[in-house]
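Slide 14.
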Amino acid sequence: MRDRITLVAGATRGAGRAMAVELARAGALVWVTGRTTRERISEVGRAGETIEGTAELATAAGREAGSGGRAVAVPTDHLRHEEVRALVERIDAESGRLDLLVNDIWGADHLVEWDRPLWEHDPEKGMRALRLGVETHLITSRYALPLLMRRPGGLLVEVTDGTAESNSDYRAPLYYDLAKNAPIRIARCLAGELRPHGVSVVCLTPGWLRSEAMLDTHFEVTEENWRKGAEKDPSFAISESPVYVARALVALAGDPAVARWSGRSLSAADLAREFGFTDADGSRPDAWGYLTARARDASVDPADFR
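Slide 15: predicted structure.
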């Protein structure tokens, strides 16, 4: 990834933050965007994770690795056309090209009413979730793809929750199902549109991600003692750190035959089997494989899928 020009859209926390760090560790220049800054907190309401913090972590990783990788933070609301247009113009002016675009924009968990059917779900919250999870991806691609297409070999990665196979069943509630299936379809459609331009498109998903909120809010643990979370829910034993999907992204982007994956929906576990990397603790969790097996046999042990 040395000297590659990359954009991780939605890199304030979670998978996006880890992706920025691992790309810089591998030598890339990473443009990182998000809405929460040290001066302004987004509607997600988590002041502890900022886009400047992501850039600092990524730059430090590049320095420690001696790879020359670094990150540049650009606060951006990806629902605002003018902000996304300005972002891409700045990348063009300062870097002259774009080799990798990662659409990891979401920030809508707080809007999803998980236990409510459509007719009981707050429609304004549901539509806002769709705008954050789908419209942002489309707006970003609209302005960034011409720069990505400038040179053959570019890669667009849509990030979602679940593979095409695992999401073939209903992911209630309806708004969430639509938001998380849309990137899979976007990747498939854009793969066809971009093939003549030498650009590949893949949809990538982590498994059960130990995001900051999953750790400190939902399970009240840390990354150091996360296994205690399995006392609350045994299935948490199959969870993975954000590093896992970040390493998957780096492996995918570094594949000289990346076009073979274009149009496909892939998980971090799928790519770990192909490229041989592990999570930060040396394991290779396969959350989607576990959930598929558990649907057939409730006695399946999560430890068998690590």
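Speaker note: The beta strands are 5-9, 29-34, 70-75, 100-103, 155-159, 200-205, 265-267.
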